[in-house]
């Protein structure tokens, strides 16, 4: 009897181990969509210009995700948008000497469950940048891209936050001649190319004032993937 019990226990343990391995091997569903960010400093620049801008500019950013398809925590986010407006103590991309602030703007079409899921998506993608969320708002959030995504053209209208980009011209936008993507994108899991921010502004409350910035080589346009 004891021997039979021992054999059954071993078989059960093996079955559980196989089940756990199968669960770990099964990839989690992905969330995919379009991504844009804009900062009030150049991200496509040369070291000489970037070094001169350290901790003087680039402390504000708008980050936006437009979900094509996918679910977070079992909640479908297809077709919804979410925006994070960031205010940092130091130039974004450098070490921060004190916590920053973030305001989230959630698509007004989202249900309460979808709203929570969109916030979870932002926290997953933006990490410490949204650790201190001072306000969460809802608004009509529209994000459109050029038919040809290679052009780097995006228009984001989230009411109090707006971004409009264009592609970078290596002739028109050249300054020092050795420009590159000096600062990487702020979000995780994105594939993005530098772009110029024709317009980048925030007119809301909750951060250290409002700001507006125009015609700067300070944007990224691309896609994101989150699991």
Task: Give me a quick take on this structure.
A hairpin with an 8-residue loop joins strand 13 and strand 14. The protein is 20% helix and 40% strand.
Helix-strand layout with pairing:
Elements: H1 2-25, E1 31-39, E2 44-45, H2 47-53, E3 60-69, E4 71-72, E5 75-76, E6 81-87, E7 101-107, H3 112-126, E8 133-139, E9 142-145, E10 154-157, E11 161-166, E12 180-181, E13 190-202, E14 211-226
Parallel strand pairs: 7-8
Antiparallel strand pairs: 1-3, 1-14, 2-12, 3-6, 4-5, 6-7, 9-10, 10-11, 11-13, 13-14
How would you sum up this structure, described in words?
There is one protein chain. With 227 residues, the protein is an alpha+beta fold. A 10-stranded mixed sheet has the order 8-7-6-3-1-14-13-11-10-9, covered by helices on one side. Strands 2-12 form a two-stranded antiparallel ribbon. The protein has a two-stranded antiparallel ribbon with strand order 4-5. It has one domain. The chain has 3 helices and 14 strands. It starts with a helix and ends with a strand.
């Amino acid at each position: 009897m004891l021997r039979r019990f021992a054999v059954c226990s071993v078989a059960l343990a093996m079955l559980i181990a196989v089940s756990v391995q199968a669960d770990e091997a099964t990839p989690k569903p992905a969330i995919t969509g379009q991504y844009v960010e804009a900062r009030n400093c150049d991200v496509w620049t040369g070291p000489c210009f970037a070094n001169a801008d350290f901790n003087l500019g680039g402390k504000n950013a708008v980050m936006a995700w437009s979900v094509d398809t996918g679910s977070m925590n079992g909640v479908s986010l297809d077709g919804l948008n979410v925006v994070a407006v960031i205010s940092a103590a130091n130039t974004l991309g450098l070490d921060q000497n004190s916590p920053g602030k973030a305001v989230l703007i959630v698509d007004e079409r989202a249900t309460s469950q979808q709203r929570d899921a969109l916030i979870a998506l932002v926290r997953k993608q933006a990490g410490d940048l949204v650790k201190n969320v001072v306000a969460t708002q809802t608004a009509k959030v529209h994000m459109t891209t050029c038919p040809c995504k290679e052009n780097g053209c995006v228009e984001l209208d989230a009411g109090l936050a707006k971004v409009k980009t264009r592609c970078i011209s290596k002739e028109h936008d050249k300054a020092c001649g050795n420009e590159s993507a000096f600062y990487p994108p702020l979000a995780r899991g994105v594939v993005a190319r530098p772009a110029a921010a024709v317009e980048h502004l925030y007119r809301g409350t909750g951060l250290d004032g409002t700001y507006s910035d125009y015609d700067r080589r300070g944007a990224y346009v691309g896609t994101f993937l989150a699991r």
